[in-house]
Amino acid sequence: MKHQEIMLNTLIKESGLNGFSDEEIGDDHIYTGLETPMRADAFDITDEEKKEKIADLFGQIMDVMGLDRTDDSLNGTPKRVAKMYIEEIFSGLNPANKPKVALFDNKYQYNQMLVEKNITFYSNCEHHFVPIIGKAHVAYISSGKVIGLSKLNRIVQYYAKRPQVQERLTNQIAEDLKTILETDDVAVIIDAKHLCVSSRGIKDDTSATVTSYYGGAFNTPAKLAELQNYINQ
Ligand SMILES: [Zn+2]
Fold this sequence. Notes:
The protein is of the alpha+beta class. It has helices at 2-15, 22-27, 47-64, 72-75, 77-89, 149-160, 166-181, 195-198, 221-232; strands at 103-105, 113-125, 131-141, 145-147, 163-164, 186-194, 209-214.
Protein backbone atom coordinates (compact mmCIF):
# COMPACT_ATOMS: atom_id res chain seq x y z
CA MET A 1 0.00 0.00 0.00
CA LYS A 2 2.69 2.47 1.10
CA HIS A 3 4.85 1.50 -1.85
CA GLN A 4 1.97 2.06 -4.24
CA GLU A 5 1.22 5.46 -2.75
CA ILE A 6 4.84 6.55 -3.08
CA MET A 7 4.91 5.34 -6.68
CA LEU A 8 1.72 7.22 -7.40
CA ASN A 9 3.10 10.38 -5.80
CA THR A 10 6.24 10.10 -7.91
CA LEU A 11 4.09 9.61 -10.96
CA ILE A 12 2.08 12.74 -10.20
CA LYS A 13 5.25 14.76 -9.64
CA GLU A 14 6.90 13.63 -12.85
CA SER A 15 4.11 13.66 -15.36
CA GLY A 16 0.89 14.50 -13.56
CA LEU A 17 -1.66 11.76 -12.89
CA ASN A 18 -2.61 10.20 -16.22
CA GLY A 19 -1.24 13.25 -17.92
CA PHE A 20 -3.22 15.75 -15.79
CA SER A 21 -1.37 18.80 -14.52
CA ASP A 22 -1.24 19.76 -10.80
CA GLU A 23 -3.79 22.47 -11.56
CA GLU A 24 -6.19 20.00 -13.20
CA ILE A 25 -5.81 17.47 -10.39
CA GLY A 26 -6.87 20.20 -7.96
CA ASP A 27 -9.76 21.66 -9.90
CA ASP A 28 -11.13 18.28 -10.92
CA HIS A 29 -10.61 16.92 -7.41
CA ILE A 30 -9.01 13.70 -8.51
CA TYR A 31 -8.28 11.44 -5.59
CA THR A 32 -5.77 8.66 -5.35
CA GLY A 33 -7.00 6.12 -2.79
CA LEU A 34 -8.80 5.24 0.44
CA GLU A 35 -5.91 6.03 2.76
CA THR A 36 -4.96 9.63 3.48
CA PRO A 37 -1.47 9.90 1.95
CA MET A 38 0.80 10.19 5.01
CA ARG A 39 4.56 9.76 5.32
CA ALA A 40 5.95 7.04 7.56
CA ASP A 41 7.66 9.66 9.74
CA ALA A 42 4.44 11.66 10.25
CA PHE A 43 4.52 11.29 14.04
CA ASP A 44 8.26 11.35 14.71
CA ILE A 45 7.89 14.85 16.11
CA THR A 46 5.43 15.95 18.80
CA ASP A 47 2.38 18.15 18.32
CA GLU A 48 4.19 20.95 20.15
CA GLU A 49 7.12 20.73 17.72
CA LYS A 50 4.70 20.70 14.78
CA LYS A 51 2.97 23.84 16.04
CA GLU A 52 6.31 25.66 16.38
CA LYS A 53 7.38 24.69 12.85
CA ILE A 54 4.02 25.58 11.28
CA ALA A 55 3.94 28.95 13.06
CA ASP A 56 7.41 29.72 11.74
CA LEU A 57 6.56 28.65 8.19
CA PHE A 58 3.18 30.36 8.11
CA GLY A 59 4.87 33.54 9.28
CA GLN A 60 7.19 33.21 6.28
CA ILE A 61 4.22 32.89 3.91
CA MET A 62 2.79 36.10 5.37
CA ASP A 63 6.19 37.78 4.97
CA VAL A 64 6.43 36.72 1.32
CA MET A 65 2.99 38.20 0.70
CA GLY A 66 4.25 41.45 2.16
CA LEU A 67 2.07 41.51 5.26
CA ASP A 68 3.41 43.55 8.15
CA ARG A 69 3.57 41.12 11.04
CA THR A 70 4.47 43.84 13.51
CA ASP A 71 0.86 45.01 13.23
CA ASP A 72 -1.02 43.96 16.38
CA SER A 73 -3.77 42.32 14.34
CA LEU A 74 -1.37 40.02 12.45
CA ASN A 75 1.21 39.46 15.15
CA GLY A 76 -0.34 36.34 16.65
CA THR A 77 -1.69 34.88 13.40
CA PRO A 78 1.09 32.34 12.69
CA LYS A 79 0.71 30.83 16.17
CA ARG A 80 -3.09 30.85 15.94
CA VAL A 81 -3.03 29.10 12.56
CA ALA A 82 -0.56 26.47 13.81
CA LYS A 83 -2.67 25.74 16.91
CA MET A 84 -5.84 25.56 14.81
CA TYR A 85 -4.24 23.16 12.28
CA ILE A 86 -2.91 20.70 14.85
CA GLU A 87 -5.55 20.88 17.58
CA GLU A 88 -8.68 21.51 15.53
CA ILE A 89 -9.16 21.40 11.78
CA PHE A 90 -6.47 18.76 11.02
CA SER A 91 -6.56 16.89 14.32
CA GLY A 92 -8.02 13.85 12.53
CA LEU A 93 -4.65 13.13 10.91
CA ASN A 94 -3.38 11.83 14.24
CA PRO A 95 -4.68 8.34 15.10
CA ALA A 96 -4.25 9.27 18.78
CA ASN A 97 -7.32 11.50 18.33
CA LYS A 98 -9.52 8.73 16.98
CA PRO A 99 -12.73 8.49 19.05
CA LYS A 100 -12.86 5.56 21.43
CA VAL A 101 -15.91 3.54 20.51
CA ALA A 102 -17.50 1.09 22.91
CA LEU A 103 -19.75 -1.58 21.43
CA PHE A 104 -22.89 -2.65 23.25
CA ASP A 105 -24.89 -5.80 22.88
CA ASN A 106 -28.12 -5.19 21.06
CA LYS A 107 -30.26 -5.80 24.16
CA TYR A 108 -33.41 -4.34 22.68
CA GLN A 109 -33.09 -6.69 19.71
CA TYR A 110 -33.55 -3.70 17.45
CA ASN A 111 -32.60 -5.20 14.13
CA GLN A 112 -33.97 -2.60 11.78
CA MET A 113 -32.17 0.22 10.10
CA LEU A 114 -30.74 2.99 12.26
CA VAL A 115 -30.17 6.33 10.53
CA GLU A 116 -28.29 9.27 12.00
CA LYS A 117 -29.01 12.06 9.58
CA ASN A 118 -27.93 15.68 9.05
CA ILE A 119 -24.58 15.41 10.83
CA THR A 120 -23.03 18.81 10.10
CA PHE A 121 -19.31 18.74 9.44
CA TYR A 122 -16.55 21.10 8.40
CA SER A 123 -13.62 19.72 6.48
CA ASN A 124 -10.96 21.14 4.17
CA CYS A 125 -10.20 20.36 0.55
CA GLU A 126 -6.76 18.77 0.28
CA HIS A 127 -6.17 20.36 -3.11
CA HIS A 128 -6.74 23.97 -2.04
CA PHE A 129 -6.90 23.97 1.79
CA VAL A 130 -10.22 25.82 1.86
CA PRO A 131 -13.38 24.59 3.60
CA ILE A 132 -15.76 21.83 2.61
CA ILE A 133 -19.03 22.31 4.50
CA GLY A 134 -21.67 19.65 4.49
CA LYS A 135 -24.00 17.15 6.03
CA ALA A 136 -23.41 13.45 6.44
CA HIS A 137 -26.14 10.82 6.78
CA VAL A 138 -24.95 7.57 8.30
CA ALA A 139 -26.94 4.35 8.59
CA TYR A 140 -26.42 0.76 9.66
CA ILE A 141 -28.31 -2.41 10.36
CA SER A 142 -27.04 -4.06 13.54
CA SER A 143 -25.35 -7.44 13.28
CA GLY A 144 -25.82 -7.87 17.02
CA LYS A 145 -23.71 -4.94 18.20
CA VAL A 146 -24.70 -1.30 18.56
CA ILE A 147 -22.75 1.90 19.29
CA GLY A 148 -23.81 5.11 21.01
CA LEU A 149 -25.44 7.57 18.61
CA SER A 150 -22.96 10.34 19.42
CA LYS A 151 -20.16 8.03 18.28
CA LEU A 152 -21.50 8.05 14.72
CA ASN A 153 -21.22 11.80 14.86
CA ARG A 154 -17.70 11.65 16.33
CA ILE A 155 -16.47 9.25 13.64
CA VAL A 156 -17.70 11.64 10.93
CA GLN A 157 -15.95 14.57 12.67
CA TYR A 158 -12.70 12.63 13.08
CA TYR A 159 -12.35 11.87 9.36
CA ALA A 160 -13.60 15.35 8.41
CA LYS A 161 -10.75 16.93 10.35
CA ARG A 162 -8.18 16.08 7.72
CA PRO A 163 -7.27 17.58 4.40
CA GLN A 164 -9.86 15.67 2.36
CA VAL A 165 -11.58 14.88 -0.87
CA GLN A 166 -15.24 14.03 -0.49
CA GLU A 167 -15.03 10.55 -2.00
CA ARG A 168 -12.31 9.54 0.43
CA LEU A 169 -14.14 11.05 3.41
CA THR A 170 -17.24 9.03 2.47
CA ASN A 171 -15.31 5.77 2.12
CA GLN A 172 -13.16 6.26 5.22
CA ILE A 173 -16.26 6.73 7.38
CA ALA A 174 -17.95 3.69 5.80
CA GLU A 175 -14.93 1.40 6.14
CA ASP A 176 -14.40 2.38 9.78
CA LEU A 177 -18.07 1.79 10.61
CA LYS A 178 -17.98 -1.61 8.92
CA THR A 179 -15.00 -2.61 11.06
CA ILE A 180 -16.43 -1.22 14.31
CA LEU A 181 -19.95 -2.62 13.82
CA GLU A 182 -18.78 -5.93 12.37
CA THR A 183 -21.16 -5.70 9.45
CA ASP A 184 -21.20 -4.74 5.77
CA ASP A 185 -24.66 -3.26 6.20
CA VAL A 186 -23.50 0.35 6.41
CA ALA A 187 -24.43 3.38 4.34
CA VAL A 188 -22.91 6.86 4.19
CA ILE A 189 -24.25 9.77 2.14
CA ILE A 190 -22.48 13.12 2.08
CA ASP A 191 -23.91 16.30 0.64
CA ALA A 192 -21.37 19.10 0.71
CA LYS A 193 -20.36 22.45 -0.62
CA HIS A 194 -16.74 23.03 -1.60
CA LEU A 195 -15.55 26.59 -1.15
CA CYS A 196 -12.82 25.98 -3.73
CA VAL A 197 -15.64 25.56 -6.26
CA SER A 198 -17.90 28.36 -5.01
CA SER A 199 -15.43 31.07 -3.98
CA ARG A 200 -12.75 30.59 -6.64
CA GLY A 201 -12.03 28.55 -9.77
CA ILE A 202 -15.34 28.00 -11.55
CA LYS A 203 -17.10 30.18 -8.89
CA ASP A 204 -20.30 28.16 -8.88
CA ASP A 205 -22.17 29.12 -5.73
CA THR A 206 -25.21 26.89 -6.22
CA SER A 207 -23.82 23.44 -6.93
CA ALA A 208 -23.28 20.83 -4.23
CA THR A 209 -21.55 17.47 -4.37
CA VAL A 210 -23.24 14.26 -3.25
CA THR A 211 -21.29 11.06 -2.63
CA SER A 212 -22.51 7.77 -1.25
CA TYR A 213 -21.40 4.40 0.00
CA TYR A 214 -23.92 1.55 0.16
CA GLY A 215 -22.66 -1.68 1.72
CA GLY A 216 -24.32 -5.09 1.98
CA ALA A 217 -28.11 -4.94 2.42
CA PHE A 218 -28.19 -1.27 1.41
CA ASN A 219 -27.70 -2.42 -2.17
CA THR A 220 -31.19 -3.90 -2.25
CA PRO A 221 -33.88 -1.61 -3.73
CA ALA A 222 -36.10 -1.98 -0.63
CA LYS A 223 -33.43 -0.94 1.89
CA LEU A 224 -32.20 1.84 -0.35
CA ALA A 225 -35.73 3.21 -0.71
CA GLU A 226 -36.27 2.99 3.07
CA LEU A 227 -33.03 4.88 3.73
CA GLN A 228 -33.83 7.59 1.20
CA ASN A 229 -37.29 7.93 2.66
CA TYR A 230 -35.85 8.59 6.16
CA ILE A 231 -33.34 11.09 4.86
CA ASN A 232 -35.90 13.00 2.83
CA GLN A 233 -38.38 13.28 5.72
ZN1 LIG B 1 -10.45 22.04 -3.84
